[in-house]
Amino acid sequence: MRAYWYDNVAGDQRLPHDSGRNLDASELEKLGVLYYRFEDLDGVNKLAQQRGYKNRDEIIVSPAKMGDVYEEKVKMFFHEHMHEDEEIRYIRDGQGYFDVRSKDDEWVRIALEKDDLIVLPAGIYHRFTTDEKNYVQAMRLFKDEPKWTPLNRDSDLDSNDYRKAYVSQYLKET
Ligand code: KMT
Ligand code: NI
């Protein structure tokens, strides 16, 4: 895992967009983003038990797996959104980028590779993309029913209870 400020330079979303300015895991934690590295499933299973992730599946995002819809899917994942539940991803192979909004509404890019596990809190604005290798295999964990409906930021989410809870827990000045 490496986290850095996104450079906001035009160009394909799959390019690194690396400003060269890093953040550490403690800064991610202040946004409610948790990071773990697990070399085998034991650690994942323990975390799942502790946090109540009862279900899981695996997804491969690649042109070979998805065919013609790959480009479309990758664009969709990159549309800024939030969820009403945590988004938990354990990277099994390949790599990808999760971008999350900082306190000041800037993009933080989190580069993930095999064995990285990330937990995005409910209500955080984020997006995902593969990198230039166009391949990621990920385990998606969830509590009960997967609540993956992306709620796009362009719709009015200021009154969404999950967004409000996130803002008051992590973004409010104290
Ligand atoms: C998501 O929610 O953005 C995805 O599931 C993308 C693939 S998993 C790294
Ligand atoms: Ni999402």
Ligand identities? 4-(methylsulfanyl)-2-oxobutanoic acid, nickel (II) ion
How many individual β-strands? 11
Q: Based on CA inertia axes, which overall geometry fits?
A: globular
CATH fold-level assignment: Jelly Rolls
User: What is the highest CATH level, the class?
Assistant: Mainly Beta
| CATH architecture level-2 label | Sandwich
Number of helices: 5
- What Rg do the Cα atoms give? 16 Å
Estimate what percentage of residues fall within beta strands.
35-45%
Summing up helix and strand content along with how strands pair, one would put the structural category as: alpha+beta
Major sheet details: 9 strands, antiparallel
Low-confidence stretches: none
Assembly type of the chains comes to: single chain
Helix content: 10-25%
CATH superfamily: Jelly Rolls
- The total tally of domains equals 1
Q: Can you give a write-up of this model?
A:
Helix content is 23%, strand content 37%. With 174 residues, the chain is an alpha+beta fold. It has a single domain (2-164), classed as Jelly Rolls. Strands 1, 2, 3, 4, 6, 7, 8, 9 and 10 form a 9-stranded antiparallel sheet that branches. The protein has a two-stranded antiparallel sheet with strand order 5-11. A hairpin with a 5-residue loop joins strand 6 and strand 7. The longest helix has 11 residues, at 41-51. The two termini are 30 Å apart. 4-(methylsulfanyl)-2-oxobutanoic acid binds next to strand 4, strand 6 and strand 10.
